[in-house]
Write a structure and sequence with these properties.
Strand order of the largest sheet of chain A: 3-2-1-4
Helix content of chain A: 40-55%
Oligomer: heterodimer
CATH class of the largest domain in chain B: Alpha Beta
Radius of gyration of chain A: 22 Å
Strand order of the largest sheet of chain B: 2-3-1-4-5
Number of helices of chain B: 9
Radius of gyration of chain B: 18 Å
Number of helices of chain A: 19
Largest sheet of chain B: 5 strands, mixed
Helix content of chain B: 40-55%
Number of strands of chain B: 7
Number of domains of chain A: 3
Distance between the termini of chain B: 37 Å
CATH topology of the largest domain in chain A: Rossmann fold
CATH architecture of the largest domain in chain A: 3-Layer(aba) Sandwich
Largest sheet of chain A: 4 strands, parallel
Order of helices and strands of chain A: HHHHHEHHEHEHEHHHEEHEHHEHHHH
Structural class of chain A: alpha/beta
CATH topology of the largest domain in chain B: Glutaredoxin
Shape of chain B: elongated
CATH superfamily of the largest domain in chain B: Glutaredoxin
Largest interface: A-B, 69 and 62 residues
Order of helices and strands of chain B: HHHHHEHHEEEEHHEE
CATH class of the largest domain in chain A: Alpha Beta
Chain lengths: 425, 219
């Protein structure tokens, strides 16, 4: 079952062009939505689909839409700041089927009574941004954007905005600050963006993949989408496989297959005859899974969550038995330390110290007391080190940095102790 | 999109910029309900005009967006892609985040530092290279990845990375193009990219048409 990638797989050279898009059913959902269904019915289909946000938080998109306050103007902002390490699905959707997203944006704006939508693309994605700008320009030329779209009386402008290289702008309120021309620092919530978002107006922020599903949902009905896959993990979703796996890449799957099938089936197993040591099931901020405990857990949002991790952004990072887990944890923590926006003390200081102490250990200068110190600092960022994590911070970036530390100590503490050796100071 | 006409003061602020950059600045301002939102795109245009984010550039962007230079600096300093010191013609970035790390990115970075003679985080004396390790660039299935002026090459080995450095130093291409660099120096890619795209980057600024940083067909 393919929804998002059907066109790009069937038409490998030109799936991004408007000619191919229109020749394969593109913009029929737009006609149906604008000219037959009406705004409320489009919103109702999305709600009925049980589509959950694909940016990482997995919040039901239709429910989020329902929170939009009545004040006008309202805005739709598309989150294309794909930056969670291991994640590269939105890049493929943007490059290979940009019109699918544009049609989803128009339909969603129509449903939400929005007349100006923004698509925020991370600055490091110039090629996806070029493809998307071409698609937006073509949509204007064809009358799918601009004023009185298809004679429906509905007007919509779309602005593409390039980021400047900051992971934190994937957090929706930081993204809105960035789009307003400010530092990308997350806002204290409430108020949520649906009440006070861009320019303090009601704003819905949805991920690229989330909105790319909307044309199919409008064409086929929300109920048909909800029937795909397990009840609370409806539809297909993109997963990004990387690391020590024979066939890395993006795969569109129906959720529910066990992790074993993802790694050994889709992924083709571990290269070089090596053994699987651990994997990260949902982006580098997710706690790790290990073969002894998790290979037969179904890859659904809820089953992954109840086993102490998350499907997050759908990024699966596979590590074989040659991996130095202390170095891997250090590398992940270094990322969060670099990307901390600096607003909240527990995150700014905590991620910095986690990185420094892990660096001390991988440099051969570790002390045995460092193990408890790392856990203590982590506890200061995310009290109790529970799952899902509690926070002492405005946004989840800080707690994300504790996941690799906790997983390292939970499954590979012996490797940390061996690396520290007899050098106890 | 709304009509934007620059005031005399605003127009004077950027009269030293090329005509296309002046036109693009007006067009960028017309795309947002609030001109402050144009800060980030205009900072990229200022980098095209001034080589990097200079103090003059921040004043110019501030005049166009109604912000003080300090406010513009607060934005420019937050984002890593705004370079506030002179940089080389080729900004070579090596992703060293987790997926690339697992597949040998540190060795690729070391090879690039060694071949270019420029350490990570610095620019070379002759203005050819700036070298930096970067965080995840979203092509993890094609790890390890290297970026030249934000145009990507996937599946790079240390040996190919050395060849890339020599190719840039000796050939000094005006436009760096993903397809060409991928063919010469790349390996396995994250996914099938479809039709080849002839354009590329002319500067260490993301090559995006509305900012004017896109170069024509590479040789």
């Amino acid at each position: 079952m393919k929804i998002l990638t059907e066109r790009m797989e069937a038409h490998r050279t030109d799936s991004h062009t408007i000619e191919r898009y229109e020749a394969t059913g593109g913009y029929t959902a737009l006609r149906k939505g604008l000219l037959e269904l009406g705004a409320e019915a489009v919103a109702a289909e999305v709600k009925a689909s049980n589509l959950r946000g694909r940016g990482g938080a997995n919040f039901p998109a239709g429910v989020k839409w329902g929170f939009l306050a009545p004040a006008k103007p309202a805005y739709l902002v598309v989150n294309g700041d794909e930056s969670e390490p291991g994640t590269f699905k939105d890049r493929q959707l943007l490059e290979r089927d940009p019109h699918q997203l544009v049609e989803g944006v128009i339909l969603s704006s129509f449903a939400l009574d929005v007349h100006h939508a923004f698509i925020y693309i991370r600055g490091e994605y110039p090629k996806p941004a070029r493809r998307l700008q071409d698609a937006v320009d073509e949509a204007y030329e064809k009358g799918y954007l601009g004023s009185d779209i298809l004679g429906s009386g509905f007007d919509l402008d779309v602005t593409i905005h390039l980021g400047g290289g900051a992971y934190i702008c994937g957090e929706e309120s930081a993204l809105l600050n960035s789009l307003e021309g400010r530092r990308g620092e997350p806002r204290i919530k409430p108020p949520f963006p649906a009440i006070e978002g861009l320019y303090s107006k009601p704003t819905i922020v949805n991920n690229v993949e989330t909105l790319s599903n909307v044309p199919w949902i409008v064409n086929n009905g929300g109920v048909a989408y909800a029937r795909i896959g397990p009840d609370t993990s409806a539809g297909t979703r993109m997963i990004s496989l990387s690391g020590h796996v024979e066939n890395p890449g993006n795969y569109e799957i129906v959720m529910g297959m066990p992790w074993r099938e993802i790694i050994y089936g889709l992924g083709g197993g571990i290269p070089g005859g090596r053994e699987l040591k651990a994997w990260i099931p949902g982006g580098s901020s997710a706690p790790w899974f290990v073969p002894a405990e998790h290979l037969d857990v179904p890859a659904t949002i809820d089953d992954t969550d109840s086993n102490g991790s998350m499907m997050g952004s759908g990024a699966i990072i596979v590590m074989d038995d040659s991996t130095d887990m202390v170095k891997a944890a250090h590398r992940i923590v270094r990322f969060y330390s670099h990307e901390s926006c600096g607003q909240c003390t527990p995150c700014r200081e905590g991620t910095t110290w986690l990185e420094r102490i892990l660096y001390r250990i991988v440099s051969g200068q570790g002390r045995h007391a460092d193990i408890e110190l790392l856990l203590d600092i982590s506890d200061g960022i995310s009290p109790g080190l529970t799952w899902p994590p509690l926070m002492t911070t405005i946004c989840p970036l800080g707690p994300s940095a504790t996941a690799p530390v906790v997983s390292l100590m939970q499954y590979f503490r012996h490797e940390v102790e061996a690396m520290i050796g007899d050098d106890d100071g | 999109m709304k009509e934007v006409v620059l005031t005399a003061k605003e127009a004077t602020a950027i009269e030293g910029w090329s005509k296309p950059s002046q036109q693009r600045s007006v067009e960028i301002l017309s795309r947002y309900p609030d001109k402050r939102s144009a800060v980030m795109p205009l900072l990229y245009i200022s980098m095209i005009e001034n080589g990097y984010v200079t103090e003059d550039g921040m004043r110019q962007v501030g005049l166009l967006t109604g912000l003080s230079p300090a406010q513009v600096q607060s934005v420019a300093s937050f984002y890593t892609m705004y370079k506030r010191e002179p940089i080389g013609d080729y900004l070579v970035g090596v992703c060293t985040s987790i997926s690339c790390f697992l597949l040998g990115a540190d060795d690729v970075l070391a090879a690039i530092e060694d071949e270019s003679g420029v350490p990570d985080g610095e620019s070379g004396g002759d203005g050819t290279f700036s070298i930096e390790h970067v965080e995840c660039n979203g092509a993890c299935g094609g790890a390890p990845v290297v970026l030249v002026n934000w145009e990507m090459i996937e599946g790079v080995t240390p040996e190919k990375a050395r060849e890339l450095v020599r190719w840039l130093r000796d050939g000094r291409p005006d436009v760096v193009n993903t397809e060409e660099m991928q063919r010469l120096f790349g390996g396995k890619r994250a996914f099938d990219w479809g039709v080849k795209e002839p354009v590329g980057a002319i500067l260490p600024v993301p090559a995006f048409g509305p900012y004017g940083s896109v170069g024509g067909e590479a040789t």
